[in-house]
Write a structure and sequence with these properties.
By secondary structure, this protein is α/β, with parallel strands linked by helices. It has a single domain, classed as Phosphatidylinositol (PI) phosphodiesterase (TIM Barrel). It has 11 helices and 9 strands. An 8-stranded parallel beta barrel has the order 1-2-4-5-6-7-8-9, surrounded by 7 helices. Strand 5, helix 7 and strand 6 form a beta-alpha-beta unit. Helix 8 runs parallel beside helix 9. The two termini are about 30 Å apart. The relative contact order is 0.16.
């Protein structure tokens, strides 16, 4: 099958692609409409986001399976206390009052993003809200790297997993943006479901070697990512064998050798999440296809400093 989505993520002479991670998490609250709008207004045309579903089947954009106290306030503006509720245990109407417009700067997670803006009355968005934005004329060139979150508690519940994939795919198709969407996951079995249920959308295989620490304040992917026992150099072959079009390694796991192997196999390589200038520069020197980052402006400046860009120059008629 020919996938029109691939070109937007593929490097070209003078071009390394730029993916806004959860919008632009270093600048504005993650996985929010405000964050996605900021990224797009900044010239970012590739957006990474995370989705799951509420108890009543509404697909929403959020990373962690539970509401995270360091980034979620109740309807009265207070940071959550105690055991936070699970998104999938709430209906959409129960979820809607929570405010995700800022970080608790006293928390370990909040300390990771001290420059993130603080907004009020910001809700966890439905996937359909972002897809509506993509239908606007000025956003016709925006593509999605859409991560379907895999719940470790449901690894054996094939019906629930299929229901989630079907709900996501149905919304993407209803908005007619399937030709601009890549389905993305750490859970390779879930990606097999995606390939079966949505063959028109490429599969993007996320990887992180077990020896690397989990990010503070975020759900771990290690329970669902089947890379235990592999070397980093073996990962491109494993992705290709599973029918993937994208390999998305953690930026510390990629080398010149593994990138060369990915290229031999015809894989597009998107690294996540490079934020520090030295790490971004190393990814540029390696020549990856795309850099996923919380700080799009940092990547833009470093690309330009190296005589590169993140988008192809427009053709002149």
């Amino acid at each position: 099958m020919v996938f029109p989505q691939l070109a937007a993520f593929t490097a070209a002479p003078g071009v390394i692609r730029l993916v806004g991670h959860r919008g632009a998490r270093g600048v504005l609250p993650e996985n929010t409409i405000a964050g996605f709008e900021f990224a797009m207004q900044s010239g970012v045309s590739l957006l990474e986001l995370d989705v799951t579903a509420t108890r009543d089947g509404v697909v929403v954009i959020t990373h962690n399976h539970h509401l995270t106290p360091s980034m979620v306030r109740d309807g009265d503006g207070n940071w959550l206390q105690g055991s936070p509720p699970k998104v999938s245990a709430l209906t959409y109407d129960e979820l809607r009052p929570y405010d995700v417009g800022g970080l608790d700067s006293r928390s370990a997670y909040g300390m990771r993003f001290p420059d993130q803006g603080f907004l009020e009355q910001t809700r966890i968005p439905r996937l359909s809200e972002l897809l509506t934005l993509l239908q606007q004329d000025q956003n016709q060139g925006v593509h999605l790297l859409l991560e379907i979150k895999s719940d470790p508690d449901l690894m054996a519940d094939s019906a629930a997993r299929n229901t989630l994939v079907q709900a996501v795919v149905a919304e993407v198709r209803a908005a007619e943006v399937q030709n601009r969407t890549v389905l993305h996951s750490f859970d390779w079995d879930l990606l097999a479901d995606c390939q079966r249920l949505a063959p028109e959308m490429p599969a993007s295989f996320l990887t992180q070697m077990p020896e690397n620490d989990d990010d503070i304040g975020e759900d771990s992917s290690k329970a669902v990512n089947p890379v235990e026992g592999f070397t980093a150099l073996e990962l491109p072959d494993k992705v290709a064998a599973a029918g993937g079009q994208f390999w998305c390694p953690y930026f510390l796991d990629i080398t010149a050798e593994s990138l060369a192997r990915a290229r031999e196999l015809g894989l597009i390589t998107v690294v996540w999440t490079a934020n520090e200038p030295a790490d971004i520069s190393r990814m540029i020197e390696l020549g990856v296809d795309a850099i996923c980052t919380d700080y799009p402006g940092r990547v833009q400046h470093l690309l330009r400093r190296n005589g590169l860009h993140w988008q192809l120059a427009p053709t002149v008629a």
